[in-house]
Design goal:
Blueprint: H1 3-33, H2 37-62, H3 70-87, H4 92-114, H5 119-139, H6 141-144, E1 150-151, E2 157-158, E3 161-162, H7 166-189, H8 191-201, H9 203-208, H10 213-239, E4 241-242, H11 249-262, H12 267-283, H13 291-305, H14 310-331
Antiparallel strand pairs: 1-4, 2-3
Helix pairs in contact: 1-7, 2-7, 2-10, 2-11, 2-12, 3-4, 3-5, 3-10, 4-10, 11-12, 11-13
């Protein structure tokens, strides 16, 4: 790199580090300023969703692939931890790690054949996988509890301290979210990230430049599945109860919408998308009745008018309007 490129890279790192530090400080202070249990529960749900969306954005936004089945990995993480801790009696932290490894191996076994597909064929394959997992969770009563769900999951703990209050869960869940965000930021700045950018741009061109596209897609698919599993395990130990409805096809659609709303190929956008869709029902009294209709409408509007995501798109519009205003000022 030239000295100018080195300077730009250094400034970019410095800006990212400053932004991450400010976000971290805001999250540390948040429970002190706002101690309402319901508000903290909402922000905790945003943190869980953000972990899944961060992984999914790597696959959709950075690798340019389509998945409509990540709620299945989310559900496997949740039910895996529930079964491992309650049924098998394994301690929660080792259970979470074991489940994440198993889900990663499942994603590897699934990814090798289906990632040879592309476009809507890949979308249909992942959707079918989600449908199969959801049916298993619903029908396998003896193991999963069936439609009644799985209750009695223990809260996570460190020694005698249990993460069973909204405030303690806030620090635990956002700590994991920040760690996952830093992992994604480092990944996209590495050689792996540059390979993914080439893959998203043009798969044939990326292959001609020496990128093993199938291996790259499989690795990022496995990583995104492991992050979804981690989020699922945290969800199970946070709410101490899981049910199949949370991990159905509509949940996968919501996760994909979070990626699109936040901005495909944006780590920060993943956090915004998760927050926007999680909080949307709170802003609209009648939203629960027309939930799917509103989600679909927002998705269509964003794809039509702001395909780069809500934040980036609005920032671009403001930037263009300011430039036009300056030009008009200068000419007058």
């Amino acid at each position: 790199m030239t000295s100018k490129q080195n300077l730009v890279y250094f400034l970019s790192l410095h800006r990212t580090g400053l932004t991450v530090s400010m976000l971290g400080l805001a999250l540390v202070l948040f429970p002190i300023v706002e101690d309402n249990a319901y508000t903290l529960t909402l922000t905790n749900q945003i943190a869980i969703n953000a972990i899944v969306v961060l992984g999914l954005n790597l696959f959709i936004g950075y690798a340019g692939q389509i998945s409509l089945g990540h709620a299945a990995f989310f559900g496997l993480g949740a039910y895996g931890s529930a079964i491992a801790t309650v049924t098998l009696g394994i301690a929660p932290w080792p259970a979470m790690a074991l489940v994440a490894i198993l889900v990663g191996l499942l994603a590897l076994g699934l990814g090798i054949p289906i990632l040879r597909l592309s476009g809507h064929y890949l979308a249909m394959a992942t959707l079918g996988f989600n449908f199969v997992i959801h049916t298993v969770l619903l029908q396998w009563d003896e193991v999963t509890g069936g439609p009644s769900g799985f209750a009695g999951i223990t809260a996570l703990n460190v020694g005698d301290f249990f993460f069973d209050t909204p405030v303690s869960l806030h620090y635990l869940l956002w700590g994991w979210t920040m760690a996952c965000m830093l992992l994604c930021l480092n990944l996209i700045r590495s050689g792996v990230g540059r390979g993914l950018a080439a893959l998203a741009g043009d798969e044939t061109a990326a292959a001609s430049l020496g990128v093993n596209t199938h291996v790259a897609k499989t690795k990022i698919f496995v990583l995104s599945a492991v992050l979804a599993s981690l989020a699922g395990s945290l969800f199970a130990h946070c709410y101490c109860y899981v049910s199949p409805d949370t991990f159905g096809i509509f949940a996968s659609t919501d996760l994909a919408i979070m990626v699109v709303i936040g901005g495909m190929g944006s780590v920060w956008g993943s956090i915004f998308g998760a927050a926007f869709i999680t909080l949307l029902p709170e802003w609209m009294d009648l939203f629960e009745t027309y939930k799917d209709f509103v989600h679909g409408g927002i998705l269509v509007l964003v794809l039509m008018f702001l395909p780069q995501g809500l934040i980036t798109g609005l920032a671009e519009i403001i930037k263009v309007r300011l430039a036009l205003r300056r030009r008009v000022h200068a000419s007058s």
